[in-house]
């Protein structure tokens, strides 16, 4: 089991972010944005599912409430070569609730079990699930344990638990990431009570120390928005968690990361893509370092009239040279 992952985040963990993240970590599990089964079955599959080979290991997160449709979505995704599939049973947004998927599924554990069974029937890759501790109506640890037991009976073995309940009425998705209190101890207890299951924790993981502290109790840790706000965090994971020091041996620096992104940017723009698709994931590359504001301004403001291959170099020039060349790994 891969012990660290970057959470699926709508409008954030798209293929451009994932390619950028792979310049910083080779071992961390990455997730797609949440994709509905209906979109896969009826929509532009190439646009939704295609990814760069460098993005492995990669999990496709699906959302839906129809077992047949989810099974078909997995079947259609198989040729793309994902490493695993994940069912979203944790998103609390109103739009998701209207589709009867995400966190509201926790109110119907037998249905979630059927969804997972259907997904497993369509692939020999691992099928996993991401969920909350519970809902406002079922907030007890015992409710979560019963939910997990119901799903584990399908053969699913990896559970990613956002260590908060979901409040489906009265709180926005953003508030649901901060207002319900964190309950790390309940996730630790789940691992103690079900040692044969692989338990991963999610919720306010902001540093390498947080990752290491959680790994003393659990099988894996999922990093959320910290991976976007301060991407340099990812560069410390391969060595500290996986014992893989290849990037360190290669002398990984922010300057090298920028240089590695230039061919990707050129190719994207040659096919009609916007430079901002690449710039947005890179905004936090210099977070906390001198020149960070200039770097962000260079990527998010009015772009100079330069060829695509020169735009990143132009922004990089605003950062002190010694900061550009600092070791990341």
TrEMBL record:
PANTHER family on file: FMN-LINKED OXIDOREDUCTASES SUPERFAMILY PROTEIN
Name of the featured protein: tRNA-dihydrouridine(20/20a) synthase
Catalytic activity: 5,6-dihydrouridine(20a) in tRNA + NAD(+) = uridine(20a) in tRNA + NADH + H(+); 5,6-dihydrouridine(20) in tRNA + NAD(+) = uridine(20) in tRNA + NADH + H(+); 5,6-dihydrouridine(20a) in tRNA + NADP(+) = uridine(20a) in tRNA + NADPH + H(+); 5,6-dihydrouridine(20) in tRNA + NADP(+) = uridine(20) in tRNA + NADPH + H(+)
Superkingdom field: Bacteria
EC number per UniProt: 1.3.1.91
Binding site for FMN: 8-10, 61, 130, 162, 224-225
UniProt source species: Alkalispirochaeta americana
Pfam families: Dus
Similarity-based family: Belongs to the Dus family. DusA subfamily. Belongs to the dus family.
UniProt xrefs under InterPro entries: Aldolase_TIM, DUS-like_FMN-bd, DUS_fam, DusA
Keyword Lipid metabolism carried by entry: no
Protein role: Catalyzes the synthesis of 5,6-dihydrouridine (D), a modified base found in the D-loop of most tRNAs, via the reduction of the C5-C6 double bond in target uridines. Specifically modifies U20 and U20a in tRNAs.
CDD domains given in the database record: DUS_like_FMN
Taxonomic lineage: Bacteria, Pseudomonadati, Spirochaetota, Spirochaetia, Spirochaetales
Active site residues according to the UniProt entry: 91 (proton donor)
MF GO annotations: flavin adenine dinucleotide binding; FMN binding; tRNA binding; tRNA-dihydrouridine20 synthase activity; tRNA-dihydrouridine20a synthase activity
Sorted UniProt keywords: Flavoprotein, FMN, NADP, Nucleotide-binding, Oxidoreductase, RNA-binding, tRNA processing, tRNA-binding
Residues of the DUS-like FMN-binding domain: 6-299
Needed cofactors: FMN
Interacts with tRNA (site feature) positions: 88, 174, 177, 293
């Amino acid at each position: 089991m891969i012990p660290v992952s970057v959470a699926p985040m709508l409008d954030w963990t798209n293929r451009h972010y994932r390619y950028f993240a792979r310049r910083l970590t080779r071992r961390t599990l990455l997730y797609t944005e949440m994709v509905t089964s209906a979109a896969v079955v009826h929509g532009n599959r190439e646009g939704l599912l295609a990814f760069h080979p460098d993005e492995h290991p990669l999990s496709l997160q699906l959302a839906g409430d129809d077992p047949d449709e989810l099974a078909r979505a997995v079947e259609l995704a198989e040729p793309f070569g994902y490493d695993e599939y994940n069912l979203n049973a944790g998103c609390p947004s109103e739009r998701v609730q209207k589709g009867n998927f995400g966190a509201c599924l926790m109110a119907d554990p037998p249905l979630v079990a059927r969804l997972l069974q259907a997904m497993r029937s369509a692939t020999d890759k691992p099928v996993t699930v991401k969920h909350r501790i519970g809902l406002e109506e079922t907030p007890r640890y015992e409710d979560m344990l019963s939910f997990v037991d119901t799903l584990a009976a399908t053969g699913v073995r990896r559970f990613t638990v956002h260590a908060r309940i979901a409040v489906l009425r009265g709180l926005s998705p953003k508030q649901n990431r901060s207002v319900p209190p964190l309950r790390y101890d309940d996730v630790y207890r789940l691992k103690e009570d079900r040692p044969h299951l692989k338990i991963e924790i999610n919720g306010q993981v902001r540093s390498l120390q947080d990752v290491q502290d959680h790994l003393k109790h659990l099988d894996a840790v999922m990093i959320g928005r910290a991976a976007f706000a301060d991407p340099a965090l990812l560069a410390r994971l391969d060595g500290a968690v996986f014992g893989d020091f290849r990037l360190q041996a290669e002398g990984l620096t922010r300057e090298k990361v920028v240089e590695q992104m230039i061919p990707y940017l050129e190719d994207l723009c040659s096919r009609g893509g916007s430079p901002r698709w690449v710039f947005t994931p890179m905004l936090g590359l210099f977070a906390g370092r001198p020149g960070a504001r200039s770097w962000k301004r260079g990527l998010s403001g009015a772009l100079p009239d330069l060829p695509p291959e020169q735009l990143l170099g132009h922004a990089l020039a605003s950062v002190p040279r010694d900061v550009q060349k600092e070791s990341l790994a």
